[in-house]
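REQUEST ID: PR-0412
SUBMITTED BY: lab tech R.K.
PRIORITY: routine
TASK: structure prediction, single protein chain
INPUT:
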Amino acid sequence: MRWAALALCLAIPFTNFNVTGMALAQDHEQALQSLLADAAAAQSRGDFSAAAESYRKATELEPTIPEFWANLGLIYHEAGRSADAIQSFKQAIRLNAALYVPQLFLGIEYLKTQKPDAALPLLETATRLNPRDPLAELSLGKTYAMMNRGDRAADAFWRAIRLAPNDGNAWLGLGTVYLKQVDSDARLMTSTYNHSPFVSLRAAETFAEEGKLVEAENAYKAAISSASPAPCAHAEFGIALLREKKIAEAREQFKTETRTESHCGLATLGIAVAEAAEEHPEAALKALASIAADDAGFIQSNLHLFHDALSADQAKALADLARKHQSAGDFSVDLGSIVEQAFLSDTLPATEIEEAETTQAARAPLPTDAETLYAAGMYAACDQVLKPELETLNSAQQQLLASCSFYTGDFLTTSKAAQRQKANPATLVRGLYWETKADQKLAVATLTQAGEIDPNSPRMHVLTGDVFRQKRRWSDAEEEYRKALAIDPASHAARLNLAIVLFTELKTDEAFELTKSLLAEAPEDPEANLLAGEILVQGHKFEEAEPYLSRCQDLDPDLVPRLHVVLGQVYAATNRISEAISEYKLGLVSDVDGSIHYQLARLYEKSGDKNDAAEEIRISQQLRKRWDDQAHTAIEQLSTDTSRQ
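STATUS: complete
OUTPUT:
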């Protein structure tokens, strides 16, 4: 052993001293062996304090052996003594930077103390030193997520999942990343790019997903009113109309989509469903079979969009007819089951979340031109042609790949293509659009997988609540957060998110009590401080709110505009006009109805700046008119629909 070899350095020409030196070396080695045995025994019985003391003494006897410092750090880590663990791991790395354990666990310690910047290089090194340990990839994914680097985080979580497919934490982490990315993209779209037809289309799709068909119809009208509407906007509008039983109007939209030469397969699918809605099941089935022959994945991934377009009787008749034809050998695809899943089931079709093989199934020779494949409705084949070349595709090819992969159900590839579109300012909005669509699908699929692995996890209930909150289903979100707290009353995430929902529901007393309990544990928590400040501002307790708002320096970037608006309210109420103006200006990106511009106008008037006040009023009125027009259109449409009933 290394410490035995040190005795060689003590050799002296006098025999009596040689004997003494050898005896000392033996004593030294025996002492180390005894300490290591004591440490192992203490560790096995869970006595981390005794184990740490034995390893500490070992480092005193042999301070240059990095493994001793690494083991001491691990014991401190297990005992929850982060500061001591960090110092031990640092010393181990100074002695040998190629050791895996101190790199990994020093990174984990920094992660625990909310220092992702310090953790990142350590965990990147750890994954290089040992690419087969899922803990390293899991920790790296958490680090990237804390740094708001969603694409990198997702890649790391995927690597962890490949190494440990049944690790519920990895699936939860991945689902959280996708969910957060959807929310971040949506905020950016509505705050910065709200005039884009892609933003209008995404809003319409969201309303349609929630079953709010009147709101969806109005949003689709806005989406198709653009000089160059987004692809499939007319077809998707037709789907909403079909679900409202407006079959003739739906057919017009499907025809319009066809005339645009966008080659949107949803139009063809819509016409097939319209045939079934008009009691022509044979014609509908023939059309569906033709579509499925080109790409069965397209039918499986998209037929559920028409969920309530057919009555139960119509859907059953169509499914029975499909099974009859299949029994006769007419179809190679089980259209009966696909129809039942789409129209007679309350669950969405399963989402394929594993990376698909990039090989072409054996069949008749296909054209390798992706555009030709897309135009023919052969989305899976188009996906297979383009996906291997993802890193080198130009912007037009990236858009084609996003469409093909999404419509055939390869949402992971859609997300990756969208990330590349976002990197180009010319295609950024389109990238945001596709990423929100794909990542929402991936979030649901990965969280479902996490739920199957660990159905009673408090984190699972929190994430389900987050999904409901994103869809503005407040009572459902509240229920999920309360389920999480029933399992883990100390859950920070469950308490914070429940408080946010309660505040939204105007249950301010309970919301404030929850927020105060969070701040009692973590006084510098930026989100809890922002929420406390908002609750107090709503109650016109401006001076009480300010100390809370002053502790929001490390707030999530998506919430920063909201912080500026609330601070503006505090400064305006306490007669600090110039500070209020500055804060409101920083929060303007979140103004959707003109209210912030209006507050700015009032402040400019108070300060005697009539020109700026007039300009802010003009902008406020413009935004307000657009907001009111949308609301009035929705009300008129609702009135019309009610009278028809």
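NOTES: The radius of gyration is 31 Å.
REVIEWED BY: pending
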